[in-house]
Amino acid sequence: MTTNFASLEPAFTARLYPSEGALSSGGSLSVVPFTSGTVVSEPGFGVPLDAEVIYGSDHVRMEPSQGHTRIQVNAILKNKDGSLLTYSYTGIIEVDEDVVALLSGSPSAKTTKFGKAISHVTFQTGSEALKKLEHGLFVGTARFVIENGRYSVETKISRVVG
User: Fold this and answer.
1) Which residues on adjacent β-strands are paired with residue 161?
2) How far apart are CA 90 and CA 72, in angstroms?
3) In angstroms, rounded to a whole number, what is the distance separating the alpha carbons of residues 124 and 118?
4) How many Å apart are CA 114 and CA 116, to the nearest integer?
5) Which among 58, 54, 119 has a CA at the least distance from the CA of 86?
6) How far apart are CA 86 and CA 102, in angstroms?
7) How far is 158 from 149, CA to CA, in rounded Å?
8) Are 94 and 68 contacting, i.e. CB atoms less than 8 angstroms apart?
9) What is the pLDDT of residue 53?
């Protein structure tokens, strides 16, 4: 029996390291800059990407219910071959006790599980070697990782295969 549903091909692992603190508009919007990060192809994926974050920020907007947060990330990446590209995603985070503990800097904060944060990822580049990234549909699932008293965001990104 054929289901005709799309499947997922593992493509990249991204790791973003936020700066301490955030800029806020005074309402429900906060802007969190990234100090560093990487986006690296999974073994066997057809587009070789081994890139570092040059600059990035996350626009975070809490929903009125306080149960979910909408995110919009935009970053500039530099691949090992010198190519530049944009890495952007929009997504939603389910806000639970673990996420609140982490974002509030609680000493009880711990690494979260994948699945509470999901995203739609896009790339843009002038590099012919990376151009295929613009023609793919990518989705991600993320977790927050606690390391040395700070957190990072690790995202497993997959290409949707029709």
Assistant:
1) 7
2) 4
3) 20
4) 6
5) 54
6) 28
7) 29
8) yes
9) 98
User: Contact at 8 Å (CB) between 57 and 83?
Assistant: no
- For the segment 16-71, what is each residue's pLDDT rounded down to a tens digit? 999 876 555 556 788 899 989 999 999 999 999 999 999 999 999 999 888 999 99
Q: What is the pTM of this model?
A: 0.92
DSSP string, the chain: ------EEEEEEEEEEEEPSS-EE-SSSEEEEEEEEEEEEEPTT-SS--EEEEEEEEEEEEE-TTSSEEEEEEEEEEEETTS-EEEEEEEEEEE--HHHHHHHTT-TT--PPPTTSEEEEEEEEES-GGGGGGGGS-EEEEEEEEEETTEEEEEEEEEEEE-
CATH number of 7-161: 2.40.160.20
Q: Which residues pair with 59 in a beta bridge?
A: 31, 72
Q: Nearest 5°: CA angle at 44, between 42 and 45?
A: 65
User: Scanning the structure block, which residue is given the tokens 């700066």?
Assistant: 19
Tokens standing for residue 17: 């390291």
Cα separation, 144 vs 152, whole angstroms: 6
